[in-house]
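Case 182 in the screening queue. Each case pairs one protein sequence with one candidate compound; here the compound is zinc ion. For every case the pipeline is the same: read the inputs, emit a complex structure as tokens, and attach any notable structural observations.

Predict complex for case 182.
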Amino acid sequence: MSADTYEWRAAPCSECADPAARLVPGDSDRADILLCTRCPAYGRLAYRDPADVRAVLPSGVVLAMRDGVLHLGVPAAPDVSAYTRSVVALVTERGFLPVWRSSARRHHVTLTAPGPDGAWGWMEVGARSGRILRAVVYPHGRGAPGIGAAGPRAVRQLVARLSDFGPFPGPGAAEGESAAPR
Ligand SMILES: [Zn+2]
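Case 182 output:
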């Protein structure tokens, strides 16, 4: 795969999950230690191990230093319907990183939000139609119940509701919203 089949964006910091965070080379002699530009604002250790960054990223993502900032490259989206593109744009606005894995029959999109206990989900898109088939989102991370939807409109509604829980739930938010019976 050549480099231009990837879309590049600044790598998120999984510790502070601040959208403004940038991971830059640390000022130590070790080039492999990264410095988060936002972590100190949250009273957190600024230094990040690249392995920590790697650990929360879905497979298929590549990392590269560009203009002195750690960037991640995600496989470019395949040819899909405009409606599907709009749903993926919406999910990106909600703070998720969509990672496409294309195949002849069905495209699979992994959705990951940065941060500890970050939201997670996936979406399936018909390769021929370019239409969304179904999706499941786990607003409170992999350990909590997921919410599923089938068909383009239901999936769009599910994604639109994501602002209700938010990809970066604050303390206590996880208990209140997930009306799961215990
Ligand atoms: Zn940070």
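Case 182 observations:
- Residues 30 and 49 are 11 Å apart (CA to CA).
- The chain has two domains: 3-60+69-74, 82-169.
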